[in-house]
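Contributing new records

If you add data, match the layout below exactly. Sequence lines come first and carry their own label; structure lines follow with theirs. Keep one chain per record. Anything else will be rejected by the validation script.
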Amino acid sequence: AKKYLLKCAGNSNNSLAMMYLGESYRYGGWGLKKDNVIGIEWFRKASEAGNFSAMAHYANAVRYGEGKGLS
């Protein structure tokens, strides 16, 4: 499942796959090592692709100063 998410998120503009990948990195799911910065970056990409759930995740990360270089 991890390889499929990476392929969908990386090779297309699949905002749902990007959002799930962000959650997987942020919370350490699907066998991925927990990495808040990478997770938030995927939320940003999914937000830009139009995913409303990812927009909420990303907005909260920016609001609370989480991640790297957010503003």
